[in-house]
Amino acid sequence: MNPVDLRSDTVTQPTPAMREAMNAAPLGDDVLEGDPTVRALEAKVAGLLGKPAALFTASGTMANLLALLSQTHRGDEIVCDDQAHVYYYEAAGYAAVAGLSIRFAPADRGIIAPDAVLGAIRPGDQHFPTTRLVVIENTHNRAGGAPWALEQVRAVGAAARERGLRLHIDGARLWNACAATGVSPRDYAANADSVSVCFSKGLGCPVGSALVADEATIALARRRRKMLGGAMRQAGGLAAAAIHALDHHRQRLTEDHRRAAMLAERLSAIKGITVDRSRVVTNMVYFAVAPSLGTAAEFCQRLALSLRVLPTGPQTIRAVLHLHIDDEAVERSARAVAEAAQMSAAKT
Ligand SMILES: *Cc1c(COP(=O)(O)O)cnc(C)c1O
Predict the structure, then answer these.
(1) Is pLDDT of 348 > 70?
(2) Which of 291, 300, 332, 339 has the most CB atoms within 10 Å of its CB?
């Protein structure tokens, strides 16, 4: 039997219905006259998020980078928390490509308070870089998939606006946040100037993200996307997958959340494994292995034939639920961890 793959919600394969939608998509050259399906997706995403315009991108990293390139100047500074994806996992594109520095705002499980934003803003003096943009992440990946409450986003948005800063929401998993809190994408986005959203995570598409914002920002982002080599031609097949996923895969995200809670419950019963179940709110389960069971990397290796998960720290491991995982796969995963824990304990 193949191992259960909980490394990420990016490991999904397109469903048969999604493949059909991809095959049926009308195509054009999206750099010349436009690809009709890409344009349809961009209009749909802009509408869902209540913004005037959207841009289809190859990845979430590219959508975030374009948010920076279209709303900042070289030498500016952005504010985010020190676990933010844009800082932690994007190969320092903010510095190497966009020429920005970063100032960290203290955060509690990925949530930045308005005072923390205000405290991170540089004085308007020639010694300092100009603070231009605040980036928040919803849900927050390294904080365990924590969603923001609408009120928290509103407060940060107000603080940023009051000081003339822009707010970008890295919403790679905004769909999960919406499924967990019941807040609409539009209500979250109303507090931000730009939002990036991802189709290749919980929604199950093979490729793609989008950046949404006002017309001028998206027009500039479109030029920068070309500069980065990210302007795609007959990309409508990929866009069709995203349209299909928006229509059919958003509602089911609550199932991933239910199964994440179920996995957390099973894991918390295993000796040597600790999991803070109060933090399991969306589709991610972070758990710790006791040093007596080895390091996280060793433990993942031991699991690999039955369960694939990724170490995220010396003793911490991440499991992510997604659309190929049913209840039975959750039970198998928990059994795999229990067996690996027993094996490890026996060895030491
Ligand atoms: C995955 C992720 C991204 C980047 O997405 P890629 O498509 O992998 O480049 C950005 N932000 C967050 C919070 C993510 O989890």
Answers:
(1) no
(2) 300
Atom of ligand 1 nearest to the CA of 64: 10
To the nearest whole percent, how much of the chain has pLDDT over 70?
99
Ligand 1 atom with the shortest distance to the CA of 59 = 7
Residue 217: cis peptide before it, omega within 30 degrees of 0: no
Residue 290 token pair? 């006791």
Cα 126 versus chain centre, distance: 35
H or E segment and range at residue 124: none
pLDDT digits (tens, 9 = 90+) for 65-122: 999 999 999 999 999 999 999 999 999 999 999 999 999 999 999 999 999 999 999 9
Quickly tell me which residue has 């205000």 as its tokens. 118
* Ligand 1 center to 326 CA (angstroms): 24
> Quick check: 347 pLDDT over 80?
no
Starting from the edge strand earliest in sequence, which strands make up the sheet with 101-104, in order? 53-57, 209-213, 194-198, 166-171, 131-137, 77-80, 101-104
